[in-house]
Inverse folding.
C-alpha cells in the first residue's frame, strides 16, 4: 500500500511519457492538447483552479488524501488511512473495530478520533520565492544563505499564522527554485462514520500489498466538524458538520476500460529531477544499502520483541513500515533492472548535456559542474548518515537538551522546531513513547546499527560521538559505553516529561549518563547541523540553477516540467487500462467480486466473511453489475501517476464524479515512483464496490441517502 | 513437457465438457453437432476414417506422435521427442548437436538414429472383442479367465505378425469392455533432418516445463526410409524415402484466436473412467504417496550420484523423469484442490448411482458392488506394490531366471514377454545398463525403498522376499542381506549377457548370491503374478460391466463416452483460446518472439543466441508477421484435450493444414489429465515460428522447398 513512510527517497529529466506528471493545478492550462488526447473534453479551467470544484472538494489528512462527498462534511478516503487514528483508537478488549467494521447509523453514533487527527483544507497558495530569498544573491556564503532563508521563512510563517486553526507551510518547488506559501485550515474534530471490517478493508493484507490482481475494499468515511461559528475546534458535542465549498458526487455507473480519469490529491514526496550521478548512485548503491538497512531492521525487531511483554505490539508499526518499504525498494531494484532504467537514463542525460554544451552560459555550466561535484561529495557520507543515531532514547534526550538551550532565547530567535508553536509536538512525541518504545528493544537496535557505524572509515564519522561511544576501542568497550547511557533513569514518557521541564542549568548540573551524553555531544551536533544547512543552502542554489537549465531544455522541445511532489495539491490524469508486463499475460483493468471468493482461504488475510461470500455466491449484484466483467468491479487499474500521500485520493471521471479511491501501485512498476515508466499503473477501489458494500452488506441507508449517487 | 513416463496413473462419469474427449475416429460421426459448434464446417467423414487424409498422415514414434509433411517421408514432431534417439546418439565430444542444432542441407547429410528408433504406421484396426473373450463367460473362474485371455491374445498376435516389419497389438478399450487389434508397420530406418539448437528447442527448460506463457521451439523433422521394394529395413544407404498415403501441408498463415483446431495423435494412457472410491483414494492418498515416492527418488539420486564417476549422467534420465512427474502430480494435487474436484465428482457419482438404482438389474448392481469392493481391496496393497522391487540388479536377474524357465517350453507355450519375439528386447534391456545403471546407486536406492517396505504391515508384504531380506530382523541384518546379494559377480551388461546364455540347470547350480536370490523368490513371484492376473481378469470383467452401465447412463442423456487413452489413434478438437485462471489475469492465446528476448538471461535455460536475438530485435518477421500480436507467434493455447503420448501431434485447422505441434499442458490445469476441466489448455508451437526459424535463422531452403507451405 502507499503507506507514508518516514524514511525518504528520491526521476529525471528524460522525455515525459503520455501519462507522466504530478501537475500543479495552474499547469493544467498548458496541457489542453494532452488532456483532449486522454479523452477530457470539458473546460480546462475547471481543473486548473485550486479553489473551484472539483479541487475545492479535495483535502489532506496529513499523509493521506481525501475528498468531501456531501454538504455535511462527509469525507471519503482509504481504509488504510484511518486504521491508527480511528480504528485502533476506538478498539479495546471488548470492541474490535478491525474485526467488526463500523457503521454510524446516526451522526450521534459517530466515533471520535485519536488526538492529533486532522483534516487540512487549503485556503491559500501564494508564490513567495522573492520573500524567501530576500537579502540573498548568488554570492552569499552558504552558512549565511542558510541562516537568511531560515529567518525569512520564519517571518513569513509567523505573519501568516493568525490563529491556531490556521497552519502555514513554506513549500519548496523544484528544489528551491520556487517557494510557495500554503495556508491551510486545520479541522480538529474528525469522526469515524464508516469503516468496513478488516477482511474487506485490508483483504489480502501484506501478501497482496503492492500487488495486482487486487481485491481490497480500501475505503472508509469520516466527517469533519467545526464549532457553530465555523471556526475549528477540538471535539465537542456542540460542534456541527463542516460545510465545504464543494463535494464530489459518487458514480454508481463507474468507469469503462479506456475512460478518462483524474486523481487530485496530495502526493508526499518524489525526487524525479535528479542528475545522472544521483540516479547511478541510487540504482547501483543507494537502493541496495537501503534494502540492507531495512532487512536488518526487520530482523532486529523480530529477534528482540515478543508478544508476552507487549514489545511486539509496540514495534509492529515500525516493522510494518520497514516491510512495506523493503518490498517497495526491492521492487524498484527489480524494476530498474527489468526496464533497463540506467541505460535509458544515461542516454537521456547525454542529450541534456548536449543541450547544455550548446545553449548554456559558462556560468551555468560551472554551476552544473559544482552540483555534480557536490552530489559526489554527499554520496560518500550516505552510509554514515544512515547508521548514525538510531537510538530513540538518545535522540529524545538530545531533543530536550536542545529545547532547553533554545528556550533561553526569545521565541522569534529560536530554531524552528523549538518555538512555542512546537512545544505541543515535542510533548506528543514523548507521549507516543508509551506505545512505540521499549528500552531493551531500542538498545538492541541501536547497538547493532552502531556496530555497523563503527566500521565506517573514521573520517566519515562524528569524532566526539565516536569517542564517547568508544567506537575505536573494540566491541566490549562500545557495549559498556552503551550500557552506561542506557542505565539512565530517563527511560519512559513520564521521566522524559519531567526532563522537559528542566532548565538548561538543571540539565547541565545533572549527572545522569544520558543527559551527560546529550550535553557532551551538543556542540558537535550543532556543528554538523550547521554544516548540513550550509550544504543544503548550497544545494538549493545549485539545484535551482540546474532546474533553470532543465526548464530551458524542456521548453526547447515545447514540454512542461512538473515539480517533485512536496505534499501540495497535484493533478494527474490518464485512462483506465490493463497492462501486460510479461509476454502472453495481461492484467485486466478490473477485478471482480468472484476474485474475493477465489482468494478466500478462511485464514487471514484472505478471510472473507460468510455473509460476504454468500452475497457474492448469490450473484446479488444489484445496480452495480458491470456487464463487461459479468460482476461488480472491485478494483481497477489506470495510468495515473501517483505516489505515497496520494492514498485516499478520489479517482474522478471527466464529470468530476468519484469513480474510485486510489490506494496502491503495482510492485512490478513501482520503479515509476522513482522514475516514471509508461507501464505504471495505479490501483483504485471501484466506487461500485463501495456502494455495493454499503447497500448489500452494510445496509447503510443513512449513508447512501446522504451521498449524491449518480448513474 | 508431456514426456512419457513409465509410472502409471489414472476421469469420470461426469457430464462431458465442450472440448473434452480423446475420440476414436469412428466416433466423430456422432459428434457432428459438436464439431459444427466448434467451427468445423467440412465433411465429418473426413475426420472419421483412420485410413483417409488427414489421419493417414499421422504416425507414432512410440511414446510420441508425429505427422508426415511431405511425399518423401518427411516427418514433423517435437524436439523433446528426438533428444535421446537422434541428438544424444549423434553427439560426442567434438559434435554437440544440442548446442549447434542440425540442418541436413541434402538427404545425404541426414543423421541416422539410435538402434530401436521406429516410426509406426497404423495399417489396420479391427474389433476383436469376441476373439479375445472366446471360450469365456461371466462365470469363468478368475485364474482360468486370465489364462484364456492370455492364450487368445497370443494366438491373435501370432496370426497377425506375418513378417518382422509388422507389429500387432491387442488393445483394451473401456477397461476390457472392447478389444481391438492394431496392426502397424514398423519403419526401422529413421533419420534426423532438422533440429533447432537446444536454446530454441527446449528454451525455458525445466523452469518453463508445464508452464505458460511459453516460448519453446519444440519442433524437429525426421525422415522415414524403407528398402526400394517398400519393405521396412534397418538403416541402409540404398534405402529410399518412404511414400506415405498422405501428408499435411504447413500453414504460413497460422490460426487466429477462436479458430477451430484438431489434434490427431497417439495419447498414451488416461484413466478417466473411475469409480468414486478410486477418485477419492487417488486425491486423498494415492497422489500424495506418489509425490512422496518421487521426491525421495530425486533426493536419492542427488545424494548418491556424481559427475566424476559418470553416475550423474547415468541417472539423469530417471531423475528428469521423476522431476517431470513430480511437477505434474504436484500440479494435479493443487488443481484438484483449486477446482474442488472431489466435491463435483462426488455429486456426479451420486447422479450415476441414482441412475443405477432406477435402471440397472439386480445382477448389474451386484457387479458394481463387487467392483467397488475389489477397488477397496486393491487400494490396501498400493503402498506395498510401490515399495516392493526397486532393485534393477535383482529385477534383471529374476527376468533372466524366468527367461531360462520359459525357454524350456515350446515358443507358443511361453509367457508373453519371454517368447522368441521378445528375446531381442531382453537383450537390449541388458545393453541399456551401460548408460543407465550404476551398482552403488542402484543399491542405495533399493536399500532406501526396502527400508520403507519393511515398515509395511507384514500381511501386505511378500513373505519369502521379506524373509530372505531379513526385513523383520532389524536394519543391520537387512543391510547384510542386501550386501550379500550385491556382492554378486553379475553387475553389468557383459556379465548379464553371459547369464542370459545359461540354461535353467546351470542357473539352478549357481551359488552366486544374486542368482540364488532369484531362484529362491521365483515361486513366490509366480504366485503373485497369478494372483494379480486373476484379480486383473476379475477387474476386467467387473469394469466392463461398469462401463456398460456408464454407457447406458451416458446414452440416457444422449452423450457418447470415449475410451481411456491406450496408445491408439485419437482425435480431439477445440478452439484457439486464452484462459483466465485467476480473476484479473488472462493468459493470452499467443506468445510472441519478443517474449524470448524478455526471458533471455544469457544463462541456461534462457540462453537465446545472439543471432536469434538480433533477428527479433530487427523485427525481421517476414511473411510470418501476425498483426493482432504485432509479431511472429511462438506458442499458442487451445482447448484441446491431450495427454502424454500426444507430444509431437500435429495441431491442424479445419483445412487439415498443420498450424502447430502440440507439446505441453499447463500445470495449473494439468489435473485435466486425470479429470477434464474446461479451463484445460494445450500448448502448441506455432507453424509460423517453425517456418520463421527455418527461413530466417537456418536459411534451410531445401526443407522449405520440400514442404507444401500454404497461405
Amino acid at each position: 500500500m502507499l503507506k507514508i513512510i518516514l524514511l525518504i527517497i528520491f526521476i529525471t529529466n528524460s522525455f515525459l511519457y503520455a501519462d507522466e506528471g504530478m501537475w500543479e493545478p495552474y499547469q493544467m492550462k498548458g496541457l489542453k492538447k494532452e488532456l483532449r488526447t486522454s479523452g477530457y473534453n470539458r473546460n480546462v479551467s475547471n481543473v486548473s483552479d485550486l479553489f473551484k470544484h472539483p479541487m475545492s472538494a479535495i483535502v489532506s489528512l496529513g499523509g493521506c488524501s481525501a475528498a468531501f462527498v456531501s454538504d455535511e462534511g462527509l469525507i471519503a478516503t482509504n481504509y488504510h488511512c484511518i486504521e491508527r487514528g480511528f480504528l485502533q483508537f476506538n478498539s479495546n478488549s471488548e470492541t474490535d473495530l478491525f474485526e467488526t467494521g463500523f457503521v454510524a447509523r446516526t451522526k450521534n453514533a459517530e466515533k471520535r478520533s485519536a488526538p492529533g487527527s486532522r483534516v487540512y483544507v487549503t485556503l491559500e497558495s501564494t508564490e513567495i520565492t522573492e520573500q524567501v530569498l530576500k537579502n540573498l544573491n548568488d554570492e552569499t556564503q552558504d552558512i549565511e544563505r542558510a541562516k537568511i532563508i531560515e529567518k525569512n521563512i520564519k517571518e513569513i510563517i509567523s505573519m501568516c499564522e493568525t490563529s491556531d486553526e490556521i497552519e502555514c507551510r513554506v513549500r519548496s518547488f523544484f528544489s528551491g527554485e520556487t517557494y510557495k506559501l500554503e495556508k491551510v485550515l486545520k479541522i480538529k474534530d474528525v469522526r469515524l462514520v464508516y469503516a468496513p471490517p478488516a477482511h474487506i478493508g485490508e483483504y489480502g493484507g501484506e501478501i497482496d500489498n503492492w500487488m495486482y490482481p487486487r481485491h481490497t475494499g480500501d475505503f472508509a468515511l469520516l466527517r469533519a466538524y467545526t464549532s457553530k461559528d465555523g471556526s475549528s475546534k477540538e471535539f465537542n458535542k456542540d460542534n456541527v458538520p463542516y460545510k465545504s465549498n464543494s463535494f464530489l458526487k459518487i458514480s454508481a455507473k463507474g468507469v469503462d476500460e479506456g475512460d478518462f480519469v483524474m486523481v487530485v490529491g496530495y502526493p508526499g514526496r518524489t525526487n524525479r529531477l535528479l542528475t545522472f550521478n544521483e540516479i547511478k548512485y541510487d540504482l547501483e548503491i543507494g537502493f541496495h544499502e537501503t534494502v540492507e538497512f531495512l532487512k536488518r531492521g526487520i530482523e532486529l525487531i523480530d529477534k528482540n520483541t515478543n508478544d508476552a511483554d507487549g514489545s511486539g505490539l509496540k514495534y509492529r508499526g515500525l516493522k510494518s513500515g520497514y516491510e512495506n518499504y523493503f518490498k517497495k525498494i526491492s521492487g524498484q531494484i527489480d524494476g530498474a533492472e527489468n526496464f533497463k532504467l540506467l541505460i535509458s537514463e544515461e542516454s537521456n542525460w547525454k542529450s541534456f548535456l548536449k543541450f547544455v554544451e550548446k545553449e548554456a552560459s559558462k556560468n551555468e555550466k560551472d554551476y552544473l559542474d559544482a552540483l555534480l561535484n557536490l552530489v559526489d561529495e554527499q554520496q560518500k557520507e550516505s552510509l554514515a548518515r544512515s547508521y548514525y543515531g538510531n537510538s530513540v532514547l538518545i535522540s529524545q534526550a538530545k531533543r530536550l537538551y536542545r529545547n532547553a538551550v533554545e528556550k533561553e532565547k526569545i521565541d522569534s530567535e529560536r530554531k524552528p522546531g523549538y518555538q512555542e508553536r512546537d512545544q505541543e509536538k515535542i510533548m506528543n512525541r514523548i507521549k507516543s513513547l508509551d506505545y512505540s518504545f521499549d528500552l531493551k528493544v531500542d538498545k538492541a537496535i541501536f547497538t547493532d546499527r552502531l556496530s555497523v557505524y563503527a566500521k565506517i572509515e573514521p573520517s566519515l564519522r562524528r569524532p566526539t560521538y565516536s569517542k564517547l561511544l568508544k567506537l575505536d576501542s573494540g566491541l566490549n568497550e562500545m557495549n559498556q559505553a552503551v550500557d552506561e547511557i542506557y542505565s539512565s533513569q530517563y527511560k519512559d514518557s513520564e521521566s522524559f516529561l519531567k526532563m522537559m521541564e528542566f532548565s538548561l542549568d538543571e540539565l547541565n548540573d545533572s549527572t545522569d549518563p544520558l543527559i551527560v551524553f546529550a550535553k557532551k555531544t551538543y556542540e558537535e551536533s550543532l556543528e554538523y547541523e550547521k554544516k548540513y544547512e550550509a550544504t543544503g543552502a548550497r544545494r538549493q542554489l545549485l539545484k535551482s540553477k540546474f532546474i533553470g537549465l532543465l526548464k530551458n531544455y524542456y521548453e526547447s522541445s515545447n514540454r512542461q516540467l512538473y515539480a517533485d511532489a512536496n505534499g501540495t495539491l497535484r493533478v494527474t490524469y490518464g485512462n483506465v487500462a490493463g497492462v501486460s508486463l510479461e509476454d502472453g499475460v495481461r492484467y485486466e483493468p478490473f477485478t471482480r467480486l468472484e476474485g474475493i471468493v477465489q482468494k478466500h482461504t478462511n485464514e487471514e488475510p484472505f478471510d472473507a466473511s460468510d455473509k460476504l461470500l454468500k452475497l457474492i455466491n448469490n450473484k446479488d449484484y444489484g445496480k452495480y453489475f458491470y456487464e463487461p466483467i459479468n460482476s461488480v468491479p472491485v478494483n481497477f487499474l489506470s495510468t495515473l501517476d501517483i505516489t505515497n500521500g496520494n492514498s485516499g485520493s478520489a479517482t474522478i471521471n471527466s464529470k468530476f464524479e468519484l469513480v474510485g479511491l486510489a490506494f496502491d501501485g503495482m510492485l512490478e512498476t513501482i520503479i515509476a515512483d522513482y522514475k516514471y515508466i509508461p507501464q505504471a499503473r495505479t490501483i483504485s477501489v471501484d466506487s461500485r464496490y463501495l456502494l455495493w458494500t454499503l447497500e448489500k452488506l452494510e445496509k447503510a441507508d443513512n449513508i447512501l441517502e446522504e451521498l449524491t449517487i449518480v448513474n
